[in-house]
Amino acid sequence: MTPDTKLIVINNPNSPTGTLYDRELLTQISEIARDAGAYILCDEVYYNLRADSQPNAPSIADVYERGIATSSLSKALSLAGIRIGWMTGSSDVIEACKQKSKSIST
């Protein structure tokens, strides 16, 4: 981690092990990101496949105020032809992403 770190990217469940991170580990990662003032982008595309086995497993968006969780239908449900995805996070994070998206598309 450097002072220039702006984003930490993780997968939950972890790829390739399939380990689903618990609240304690996500909190530790969040503390590191908070100290750096960084966002955490977490690919949670397989989250629902594993969360049933650990019903209290949180999303990064539940643990960290600058956490961004993304998912889609393509991978986990083998629906490659359907390009639908989503992200969750705090309203501030979502609004910042919308503004950035507008500036890229124009």
UniProtKB/TrEMBL annotation:
InterPro entries: Aminotransferase_I/II_large, NHTrfase_class1_PyrdxlP-BS, PyrdxlP-dep_Trfase, PyrdxlP-dep_Trfase_major. Pfam families: Aminotran_1_2 (PF00155). Its cofactor is pyridoxal 5'-phosphate. The keyword Hydrolase does not apply. Belongs to the class-I pyridoxal-phosphate-dependent aminotransferase family. The keyword Transit peptide does not apply. Residues 5-101 form the Aminotransferase class I/classII large domain. Its EC number is 2.6.1.-. It is an enzyme of class 2 (transferase). One of its GO terms (molecular function) is pyridoxal phosphate binding. Keywords: Aminotransferase, Transferase. This is Aminotransferase.
